[in-house]
Amino acid sequence: MEFSLLSPRSPPNQVSEVKKEKREAKEEHPRAFSEKHRDLISTFPQNNEWKFTLPLYKYQGFWNCPNYIQGLLLAQENFKPQSTDVIISTHPKAGTTWLKALAFAIVERNRHKDSSSLLLTELSHDVLSFFEIDAAQNINRRNPEIPLLATHFPYSSLPSSVIKSGCKIVYMCRDPKDVFVSLYYFQKKKHSGVEFISIENAFELFCRGVSTFGPYLDHVLEYWKASLEWPERVLFLKYEDMKSKPLCYLKKLAEFIGYPFTPEEERSNVVQEIITMCSFEKMKDLATLKNGEFYSNTPFSVRNTVFFRKGQIGDWKNHLTKEMGDQLDKITEEKLNGSGLSFLSYH
After folding, report:
1. Confidence at residue 30, expressed as pLDDT on a 0 to 100 scale
2. Torsional sign, CA 204, 208, 212, 213
3. What are phi and psi of 57, to 5 degrees?
4. Could you give the residue numbers annotated as active site?
5. How far apart are CA 323 and CA 7, in angstroms?
6. pLDDT digits 0-9 by tens, 94-134
7. Across the strands, what pairs with 303?
8. What angle is formed at CA 116 by the lines to CA 114 and CA 119, rounded to 5 degrees?
9. Which stretches of the chain are DSSP H helices?
């Protein structure tokens, strides 16, 4: 079985049909969760200190909830990318929603202008979802004309078919302190029906590497090292750089994925128009975010509004003590020592 994505340029009615398919998938999910995978996952190390409904399990060196691991196992077994695909990869809360929107807008700019873009009616996660979630939901949504795929999984866990295909990968990271704060409040809102742990306890877990898709720094380092070894295939970006120089890095992104801007487009402010359309403020104010839900009525469901908090650089200072910031900085510097990668300039 092959799992893939819906064409991001599918008309709104087709997007609605996929949403219906997602809703119907909820009842089938327990059956899709095969006995083989359930038994396998049960043997993995587990941790429930975050007090989620289900514990986190450690698979291939990274922690995650069982539903995501199930999707990854299925993707590792069955996913068949094309050599022309572009994998958009991030750790959660490192700018995922924004990077997806930018990549989609770049690819679709000649077919969908500002007034007709699906980004005005759909969350970027709906037009460009995660292949591991689609795998877990048994949804086949590939349109080979659209090269974009997405994942949260670390480089070492990507299906071997992705590596063998030679397709390109775009990875974006973010200062660990801001990632933690954004992740904590995302999880707190997502699990609003349960008594959630304190930010101090969550911080201690994050520093130990125990969090969804964590350890975060290992996640970052894997893609960083891959980008050094295969720069023509792996583009490594920083959220802070994208925010401070959006024109420069949007053009770099477009060039890398094979959709460079023409001189005429640059003179016509097409690049700036995409930046404006995909801005945090623009996406947060869209009507679809007020009442919408990502993967509604499935084990992956999240209210769209939960994906948007502040999107600011350095907001961690409003939530962590200086001592906590210093502690995570020290862990980061020790982990990245000798790699050539640093977040020091964002302190």
Report:
1. 38
2. positive
3. -120, 145
4. 152
5. 46
6. 999 899 989 988 998 877 555 446 655 566 556 777 888 88
7. 293
8. 75
9. 12-32, 35-42, 66-78, 96-108, 124-127, 131-136, 160-165, 176-190, 199-208, 216-229, 239-244, 246-256, 263-267, 270-277, 280-284, 287-291, 322-336
Which of 35-44, 112-121, 237-246, 284-293 has the highest average model confidence (pLDDT)?
A: 237-246
**Residues 6+ away with beta carbon under 8 Å from 292:** 123, 303, 304
**Is 26 exposed, middle or buried, given 0-12, 13-18 or 19+ CB atoms closer than 10 A?**
middle
Residue with tokens 């993707």: 75
The token pair at 114 is 């500002």
Q: CA–CA separation, 221 vs 92, rounded Å? A: 15
* H or E segment to which residue 168 belongs: strand 168-173
Cα(94)–Cα(90) distance, rounded to whole angstroms? 6
Report the C-alpha dihedral over residues 195, 196, 201, 206, rounded to 10 degrees.
150
Q: How many residues does the chain have?
A: 347
Tokens found for residue 249? 């890095």
In tens, the pLDDT along 296-326 reads 555 555 665 565 556 678 899 999 999 999 9
CB atoms within 10 A of CB 93: 24
Burial (CB < 10 A; 0-12, 13-18, 19+), residue 68, is: buried
